[in-house]
């Protein structure tokens, strides 16, 4: 059977896929664009899964649909099992082969999990994960979260907001200790405790069993109505590796046009390791990066010649605390803090050993990422505290 011929194929169903399809459509109005995604849903705005859908007026997934079906043909619930750049084909789980002219790989990441599957022990990343969890949570539901990072903290706030009884077990001394300086870590801890979330530091889970029950390294056990495993993410690199695409730092190497090492294969979103014009080669797993790289890849797939010169932002909300940030936030870097006690805002600069700016955290400080971005990759000025006035 001859392969189905598709000028544009996008593998993956997230925001990068949506932005790419729209960029292709803008440049090529008659384009035939096929999107293949394992999800039963089309692209949705995924940040809402751990934010707005829990605290806003709407809790249904449909409210976050990006409307991608208006610009592309969606093939949902379909897994792409193989990518062959030599023959320019992808193979679907049905066995069907699809020939492409240009292909975008935007498969993103999946939740990491180191434990056996157990009823009541859930992961959280996809629209399906949200629906499964939301259906099991109500006022008073006892939820145990394992992990102390980005998703763990957002979901602890979200679940507590809808009335769940939340306990967070994490291996470090403080939530988010790999990101922030001690003063902000204390503020975060106080906020969660005040909101009724129980925090258990220095907790190491060795096994998850029926119940669901956590068994800790010290022999203690805890049983809850639900266990949410927030253990980080793993990039979905399987297709890229099968295709022999050049990899770097666990991700797929791309140039400043989002082109991979294979002709006519582009990569966007979490999967892309790109040359940041300010900070050097890196990969970023946040929605702003997915949107921007998806749009640029799509434009170039349709004949554009755009280069990526943008350093993405990221943000988070934790109850009424929040931040925006650019660059690399890592507490192993030198951190210089400037706090405004009047409105509880702050700016934290992250400097490398050479005193160059690697990242800027804008804590309860909004609309300043453009200002902060221009200092990335440059020597830190002597007047850091005067550049971005917290709360201004």
Write the layout of secondary structure elements.
Elements: E1 4-11, H1 15-27, E2 33-37, H2 52-55, E3 73-76, E4 80-84, E5 89-92, E6 97-105, E7 109-111, E8 121-122, H3 127-134, E9 142-146, H4 150-161, E10 165-169, H5 182-194, E11 198-200, E12 205-209, E13 213-216, E14 221-223, E15 226-229, E16 233-235, H6 238-242, E17 247-248, E18 251-253, E19 265-267, E20 272-276, E21 280-282, H7 287-301, E22 313-318, E23 321-327, E24 334-340, E25 345-351, E26 357-363, H8 369-373, H9 384-387
Parallel strand pairs: 1-2, 1-6, 2-3, 6-19, 8-15, 9-10, 9-15, 10-11, 18-20
Antiparallel strand pairs: 4-5, 5-6, 7-16, 12-13, 13-14, 17-18, 20-21, 22-23, 23-26, 24-25, 25-26
Organism: Corynebacterium guangdongense
Cofactor: FAD
Catalytic activity: A + NADH + H(+) = AH2 + NAD(+)
Task: Please characterize this protein's 3D structure.
By secondary structure, this protein is of the alpha/beta class. It folds into three domains: 171 residues, 3-Layer(bba) Sandwich (FAD/NAD(P)-binding domain), CATH 3.50.50.60; 119 residues, FAD/NAD(P)-binding domain, CATH 3.50.50; 68 residues, Enolase-like, domain 1 (2-Layer Sandwich). Helices cover 20% and strands 31% of the residues. It contains nine helices and 26 strands. Strands 1, 2, 3, 4, 5, 6 and 19 form a seven-stranded mixed beta sheet that branches. It has a five-stranded parallel beta sheet with strand order 8-15-9-10-11. The protein has a five-stranded antiparallel beta sheet with strand order 22-23-26-25-24. 42% of the residues are buried. The mean pLDDT is 95.
């Amino acid at each position: 059977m001859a392969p189905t011929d598709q000028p544009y194929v996008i593998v993956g169903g997230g925001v990068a896929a949506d932005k790419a399809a729209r960029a292709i459509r803008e440049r090529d109005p008659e384009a035939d664009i096929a999107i293949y995604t394992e999800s039963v849903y089309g692209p949705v705005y995924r940040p809402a899964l751990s934010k707005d859908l829990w605290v806003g007026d709407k809790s249904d997934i449909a409210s976050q649909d990006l409307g991608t079906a208006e610009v592309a043909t969606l093939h949902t619930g379909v897994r792409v099992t193989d990518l062959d750049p030599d023959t320019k084909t992808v193979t679907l789980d049905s066995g069907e082969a699809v020939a492409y002219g240009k292909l975008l790989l935007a498969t993103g990441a999946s939740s990491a999990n180191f434990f056996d599957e157990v009823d009541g022990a859930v992961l959280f990343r996809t629209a399906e994960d949200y629906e499964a969890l939301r259906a099991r949570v109500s006022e008073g539901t006892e939820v145990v979260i394992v992990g102390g990072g980005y998703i763990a903290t957002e979901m602890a706030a979200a679940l507590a907001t809808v009335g769940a009884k939340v306990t967070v077990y994490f291996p470090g001394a403080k939530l988010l200790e790999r990101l922030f300086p001690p003063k902000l870590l204390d503020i975060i801890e106080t906020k969660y405790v005040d909101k009724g979330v129980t925090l258990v530091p220095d907790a190491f889970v060795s096994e998850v069993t029926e119940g669901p029950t956590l068994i800790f390294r010290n022999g203690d056990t805890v049983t809850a109505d639900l266990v949410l495993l927030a253990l980080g993410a793993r990039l979905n690199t399987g297709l890229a590796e099968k295709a022999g695409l050049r990899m770097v730092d666990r991700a797929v190497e791309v140039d400043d046009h989002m082109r991979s090492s294979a002709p006519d294969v582009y990569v966007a979103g979490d999967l892309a390791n790109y040359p940041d014009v300010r900070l050097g080669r890196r990969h970023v797993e946040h929605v702003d990066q997915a949107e921007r790289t998806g749009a640029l890849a799509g434009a170039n797939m349709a004949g554009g010649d755009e280069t990526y010169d943008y350093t993405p932002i990221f943000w988070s909300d934790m109850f009424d605390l929040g931040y925006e940030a650019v660059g690399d936030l890592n507490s192993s870097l030198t951190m210089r803090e400037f706090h405004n006690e009047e409105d509880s805002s702050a700016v934290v600069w992250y400097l490398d050993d050479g005193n160059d700016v690697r990242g800027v955290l804008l804590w309860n400080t909004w609309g300043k990422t453009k200002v902060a971005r221009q200092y990335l990759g440059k020597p830190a000025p002597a007047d850091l505290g005067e550049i971005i006035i917290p709360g201004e």
